[in-house]
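TEACHING EXERCISE
Course module: macromolecular assemblies
Task: Read the component lines below, then compare them to the predicted structure of the full complex.
Student: A.B.
Group: 4
Components provided:
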Amino acid sequence: MTVSLGGRLEGSVLPSPVLDISGLRISYLDQNGPRTAVHGIDFSVFPGEVVALVGESGSGKSSTAQAIIGLLPENGRLESGNIRLNRLEIAGWSQKRLDGIRGSVISLVPQDPGNSLNPVRTIGKQVAEILVIHGKASGAAADARAIELLERVGLNQPALRAKQYPHELSGGMKQRVLIAIAIALKPSLIIADEPTSALDVTVQKHILDLIDELRREFGTAVLLVTHDLGVAADRADRLIVLKQGRIQEQGPTTNILTNPQSAYTHRLLADAPSLNVRQRRVAAVAKAEHGKAGDDIIVVEGLVQDFGRGGKDKGLRALDNVSFRVRRGTTHALVGESGSGKTTTIRSVAAFQKPTAGKVIVDGLDLSAPPRETLRLLRKKIQLVYQNPFGSLDPRQTIAGIVEEPLLNFEPIARAKRAEIVASTIEKVGLPLDVLQRRPHALSGGQRQRVAIARALVLNPQILILDEAVSALDVTVQAQILSLLDTLQRDLGLTYLFVSHDLAVVRQISDTVSVLNGGKIVESGVVEDVFEHPQSAYTRELIDAIPGKKHPLHASRSTLTNSGNI
Amino acid sequence: MTILDTAERHRNIDSPNPLDWISPAPAAEEAVGAPAKVRAKPILIQPGLVLAYIILAVALLWAVAPGLFTSYDPVQGLPGQQLKAPSALHFLGTDALGRDLYTRLVYGALHSLSGAVAAVAIGLLVGTALGVIAGSVGGWIDEVIMRLVDVLLSIPVLLLSLSIIILLGFGTVNAAIAVGFTSIASFARLVRSEVVSVRRSEYVEAAFGSGGTFFKVLWRHVLPNSLTSVIAFTALQVGSAILQLSTLGFLGYGAPPPTPEWGLLIAEGRNYIATAWWLTAAPGVVVVLVVLAVNRVSQAIGRAQQ
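Instructor-supplied answer key:
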């Protein structure tokens, strides 16, 4: 499609773009021959501008970014098209020639800070290295400049950090180091490939603020590759919406958000939880209120969990006096950042570990000192759905085998009856019956997560623990799974314990919420109250960090999306 | 049109350039909703692999039906035919007792191959059992088993197998047991490492979470998912077992004469190396070929699994 670049810089003479891409086609060679991943896209990035490439997995956004810096995987091929960097055609350059501009003219902030630093070299050396490579400084001068850079990206005690190794730094700190490397030579373009996907929401905000600040200071253009529309909406001047290797829409952020032209953008915007603050479901509490008051299916009181290394070592207190209650038929969310004790809490509720102190009562069963058989019977009441649908299904089993397995663990059921139960469960989660004979690798992420939900449901449990169950999914798939969960809750009267770091999703689907920080509950209550009137500073910080705040445009679009959805 | 040659650049974190540190994208970003197609692999003819299979097939046929390949007797010598050079009649010559060397090699396949298979079977079964127990139970049992394995690994293989033969007595079966015993430790280590990683996977926890008992989960998930790399290793071990058995035979700790065991053949020919070098060379070449063939096949299995 042809796309107008109108409105990029109102009224002024257009400066020449830092990056100008036209007719870019990328294909991947696999066993079935070449497959085109990007079908001739055109866009430009102007100096000092933040352009966001947004799209779901498979949209070609990463391929585009990789092609620009010449780092396509070995089976990737730049079929045709021009990549002009400061008017210089770089498509087709050899790796050796590209080395000269990578880091100095164009640099990259990679996605996973955990894997992107060399574990056996100090931080300072790694930052200094880029200066040395490009001949900008050497020896002590390079080391001193590295410390300056570390200070510039907001690391405290930069001289100390320079002597440390990557494992001594947190994820956010490592990402700052990578940013320091990326800005070291003041490149004209920084490609940030999902720079914050692996980070906690408050850290994400700080990192994005830092990139923003540095951009303003140096006038560097940023190409932000992200799946998170909230992040893109907050940070980008212009959006490019990609779907299956084609540009659906591009233009100034505000225009796209308030007046999206393509149906796909409409759907993306409607499905992004962070942009739809007021889109609340009709609370399941209404139904639960019919039940007798005080009908709490999960009661956690004064839960303490220590992890010791055994012996005299006092160990780590992961949970400290955690208490909450969940009404039957409602959704309770546990939110917090990594290390806050969310996962430890649910593992105690699911009886995967014995609490050090405190009480966990699930549907009348006290889990503090359960005999083995009670424990196994508990499994029929409470089931877990994991975050990563790629890791939670045995790759060697068929879908039928996976869903059937829980049935084999309890009293014997005839084979025909089992097949019937499996088929009906698969239908319940909205999958076609022909998936039954397939194996997990033949399904997409969303389908696999449905299979994981089917496995959890096959025993007719009363409680489902959802451990970041939608965090690994694309927004549209996430929206589908969330609506499936909602339907199932209404139909089957399920209780959900929903663990997430994504407050926007929590706000959308839960009735009550507990906020965890450092193993303690800092705040707890009905979702509206907690979100509208947060009492603790920590909760306020978390809520402020939710991206997508800059454009509170739901009101203007609500009629559109709601009529589209309902 | 450009092919970007980036083969070696991924995850190249030693590289000074941060751009090199990015991880490779998946071969193609996953097409959501589309089921993966059954992929027809292009058939690549690998001459080395084909040759390896042919060698193994011949060796197996020798073991199964030696009578098809030769009409001589492997044990009874022919009078007046001692130490003949290779000829149309005796195509690898005869030994000091007038026995046809080619015939002895053909009949020897049974001893060498069955011994190797038995040895590997012992290592596989005992080693896997120990590895699975250590990896899945954990705790002090894991410690005890793995420290014993460390002890086994610290003793030189030949010394260990010789000691076992001295304890058990000479003979083909005992030699196989001795060789098998030396591979227990490597099997146990490999299996344990696999079990430990599989056991931590979410699908195993999910299986426990759906009410599975320890043994059911072990049998359904942990074992099948742990054994993939063990299969390639097993094939590799067959080659080294043949070699070890031949070594023992050569040293006189294996099958007693007049058994036509390959190692023993080499040892017997050694005395005539100046006048009849083929008596040592021929069985030596056979051992080398079979071991190389087994290694090539195990390598192919390992690659196929990746």
